[in-house]
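Feature request, filed as a ticket because there's no other form

It would be nice if the structure record came with a short human-readable summary line next to the tokens. Right now we just get the raw output. Example of a typical job, pasted below so the devs can see what we mean:
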Amino acid sequence: MRYLTGLLATLCLGCVCIGTRAQDSQAMKQSTSRPTDPHQAMERTSFQSGSPWSPGVQIRSDVVMCYGVGPDIAGRIAGWKSQGYIAHVMTGVSWGQYQDYLYGRFDGINHVDEAQTDRFGNVVSHGGDVYYMCPGENFGKFLCVGVQRAIDAGAEAIHLEEPEFWVRSGYSAGFKREWKSYYNEDWIPPHQSPDAQYRASLLKYYLYRRALKQVFDYVKDYNHKSGKHIRCYVATHSLINYASWRIVSPESSLLQVGADGFIAQIWTGTARTPNVYQGKEQSRTFESAFLEYGAMMNIVRASGSTVWFLNDPIEDNPDWSWRNYRANWESTLTASLLWPQVWKYEVMPWPDRIFYGTYPAKDASERKPGEVVPKEPIPAAYGTELMSVINALNDMKQDQVSWDCGTRGIGVVVSDTMMFQRGEMQSSDIHLGSFYGLALPLVKHGMPAEPVQLENAPIAGALKAYKVLLMTYEGMKPMTPQVHDALAAWVREGGVLVFCGDDSDRYNKVHSWWNTARMAYSAPREHLFERLGLEKSAKAGVYTVGKGSVIYDTESPAGLTYNPRGADHIRALARDACKLAHIAFVERNYLELRRGPYIVAAGLDESVSDVPKTLHGRFINLFESSLPVLDQVTLSPGSRYLLLDMDKVKTATSPVLAAAAKVLDVKRSATGRISFYAEGPKGIEATVRLALPHAPKSVMVDGEAVAAEAQSWDGQSKTLLIRFPNSASGRRIAVQ
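Raw output as currently delivered:
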């Protein structure tokens, strides 16, 4: 995740960390009274930091990912471990402090010509000589040196971040050499034709897969020799975002070459990228985030690998206000929780910039020309809300899951090749309408459509969860013919495939498997239809294939996004498909998911209607710092909720319902005394709501009575709210 200020020196393979905060030596000592978390080994929550431990960032997640593998890494790992964290290490892959490699200090060879370069000779830089790399053969070996340093320092897992090759690059001497080696022909400028652009992207895809495979193989060999089990994860944006931002990355193929899983880097900065729906171009943070998280979940679903979902309370753009950050964070957080298959979360990157940073009091759009606005630290209420939610995320592994939403079981097919058609020779589809044109009409009407990874289709059971699939080869292409065999088999068993597009995409003519001498198809759709038993030249219509059906529509999904009625056209196709699949076509103006005692809900705008749904019961709103108890919640358009249903909580296990602190060691005595331990970042107020049979006689924090204004008894819900300053070394709370 991009973050330069004060951190470049921590992203390195061979330099000393700078800009770190002085450690509190007293707080740094491991408290002998700190209880352990019996569930920590599950590694439920994590965060990344380039700094040593300090009291203000005592988030108390299970895992810290120490960023960078410079000479100070051992000290930083030791410091975090002394505070009870499991230590992983994360380091950049495509960019970082790679000067030792660039200037020949690593292997005696100057590698500056491996820096990514655009057609005008500009090096693609992350600032100064922190270049995005075109990874040569020795680059993977260089990464292995840093990874070994991290392992020697005590890292239990390695996270390799952002293997990224910009579409606009591909003009360096290093890339030309790789082209010659890979294609056995002289380099062709990528901007020269769609074919050159597509082939350049395919090579970029290969080069980072090769570099990462070198690291994966190295770590596996180390594990074999040492008997250890160091895991390798890749921290990466979603396929949808990379295609939108015009970046190529190996994405789904990394599981085939040894990755143990991913961190899905979705946050406000990616999800607010504008798209077009019903002719209107604007940011749709919640819907985009929902689809981005879904794309990453689907990559690992068939393989059983691990995925962590990232949330970020702010973003890399420092010009938004805290109010803006909070609203968009709640949208992305809600979107991430609507994928119940995932229960591991990176709760934030860079806690220093959240808890110590300052941001404008107004958004740029709210300022008058030339107006200078003050910067503010994190609002107290937002800091408390963050800690309440972060601690709830530790509890998201729930077996009981139920939906209230529109039709489920619908997928939208995506392919890694979406990243290959985003260069200068692309069509007019600048907002990725070929994807959003199929997906948004469903999500906007309450149908939780899932992105379905085409490359995974041949994996046994990969398509089993879906009754209806929508797809197009406008904006993407199949990498192999085997995916068509898998799709055809799924249709014959009863699936309904909706295929959109008229074969006019210029990338149909690129040199690939479907138009070789052996397979002379003018478009890959023709090969798919042949496998389905249909004529290559089939007209738009409905066709029966085995127990299933194919609906062929020749409208352009991207073109439909600019049509105010385009979304209705796609929903009409989906309605027909559901009828053929014998499932009800249901539309809602909200999405609601129950995960055990938690309710995740979003009211949708641009939807069926503005008449909201109202929930009735006893709910604690975790998106409010005061943890209020509500007897009804209205899902109005644009609303986001994370609720705790008090009637679903087993208070006999623990009376602590919600807390803006890590709560452990809860005890009850025969005399009616309840005690527990609470720990959190210094400077952030803790709020704790407890279920009690009646009003308490006394409330003590560290042996001192809590002031009347810092406690509140709610007789109707029979709950007590306590407020106290968090402490990095922990506090003992007793309620009589």
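Something like this underneath would help us a lot:
The radius of gyration is 26 Å.
The chain has five domains: 8-94+139-165+230-399, 95-138+166-229, 410-580, 590-648, 656-735.
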